[in-house]
Amino acid sequence: MQVTILPESLKLKTDHEIQLYNYQRAQDIQKTKINLSKNTISFLRKGTKEVIGDDKTVKITNQHFVVMKSGNCLMSENVSESFKLYHSILLFFSNNELLSFLEKYKGYAKQRSEHKSFYIFEYDHFIESYVSSLEQISNFSDQMKGQILSNKFEELMLYLTGKHGFDFLNALVNTQDNKLAQLNAIIDNNKLNKLTLEELSFLANMSISTFKREFFKIYNTSPMKWFSEQRMNHAAFLLETNTKKPIELYEEIGYENLSNFIQAFKKKFGMTPKQFQMQN
Prior knowledge:
The protein has 280 residues and is of the alpha+beta class. It is 42% helix and 22% strand. The chain is elongated and about 70 Å long.
């Protein structure tokens, strides 16, 4: 699967530390491999977005915007049913620009314990007005954009840190390289998602063979067996709590048809899903 590198693939005319792009599309995309070479804020205007990262999965509507740390992720975008359009204002900014802001306003923290790839914030009146101004700026010449975007970035950061503090910005510039913690987060976050080995290894920034080898070191089994076990246990929980019926479950936990799910469930628990649900 091809990897889309942002913002480079957008072919913006400038290579400034801060870049702006008015992004629109008329078709859905599903689980596209994205490499963010810069931190990115996606101000969603129309449609919905899902982003799968190394520590969690986020889903947002046009009532929210998401701040994303540079790195690998899987991204799905769905057009609005009303407008038949997906629309997002993308603001890209480098770690250098972020560190300059943290230095200027004394917000840098050397010790950072949390690791998060994404932060979701809700729109309010200020952000609505701010995004509208970005839409106007996106039509300016490249020469005009440079200094204006620098000032607009600082304006936004002052507003967000005033409301939410500096922790989320420090997490974005956290460069601690803890491969084991990252791998554990990816596995735990996606144990119920139907991701392929290729997609999982991409999130971990590893080859498939390296991912399988590192996985075995931690869990002493293959990824396929481990994920199948987790999804089957989840199915048993949903059946036990009468949350869902067997026919509503098989696709959710990765089976193509009900017959294969029943066979696999019976092999593990010694009874069919229906029998298991009636017994419990």
